[in-house]
Amino acid sequence: MTNVQIFGVKSSQATRAAERFFKERGVSAHSIDLKQKPMAPAEIKRFIQRFTLAGLLDQNSKAYLDSGMKYLKLSEAELLARIEREPNLLLLPLVRGANKIAIGNDPEAWKAMLTG
After folding, report:
1. What is the Cβ-side half-sphere exposure of residue 98, based on CA atoms within 13 angstroms?
2. pLDDT in tens, 43-89
3. Helices 107-115 + 13-24 axis angle, to 10
4. Among 9, 3, 11, 15, which residue's Cα sits nearest to residue 104?
5. Is the entire prediction scored with pTM above 0.85?
6. How many other C-beta atoms lie within 10 A of the C-beta of residue 63?
7. For a disulfide at 104, which of 45, 78, 91, 100, Cβ 3.0-4.6 Å?
8. DSSP secondary structure letter of residue 61
9. Distance (Å, whole) CA 116 – CA 104
10. What is the DSSP annotation of 101-113?
11. DSSP code, position 116
């Protein structure tokens, strides 16, 4: 059985969609609420290596627009610190399973995690 981790926030509709997707398929997914527990540096690094740090940001989110991120020039360390404080800046959910990772509401990528 595939071990799936879903990193998101409870208020995110996309995070809830991922949880529902795996539950409907009988897969026990471990959900991590990023407002309660930030991602470990090694974990976020996996996603950054695949999607880039800029690629992880949800540039259409209210959190991104309200924070003025579009106009700020931040170092990677500053950006990571800001993401840790405000996980809604990320394109949620971040999902890891079967040595595969996905960001955002991506049922096709989630299916690929289940097929190995």
Report:
1. 13
2. 999 999 999 999 999 999 999 999 998 899 999 999 999 999 999 99
3. 30
4. 15
5. yes
6. 16
7. 91
8. S
9. 20
10. EEESS-HHHHHHH
11. -
Domains of the chain: 4-115 (3.40.30.10)
23/27 Cα distance (integer angstroms): 6
* Token pair of 90 as six digits: 């990320």
For 14-47, letters b (16+ CB in 10 Å) and e give bbbebbebbeeeebebebbebeeebbeeebbeeb
Question: Using one digit for the tens of pLDDT, what is the confidence trace for 103-112?
Answer: 999 999 999 9
Quote the tokens at residue 84.
């840790």
CA pair distance 74, 56, nearest whole angstrom: 15
Strand partners, 96: 5, 101
Distance (Å, rounded) from C-alpha 65 to C-alpha 20?
A: 28
Sequence-separated (6 or more) residues with CB below 8 Å from residue 43: 7, 96
pLDDT at 1 over 60: no
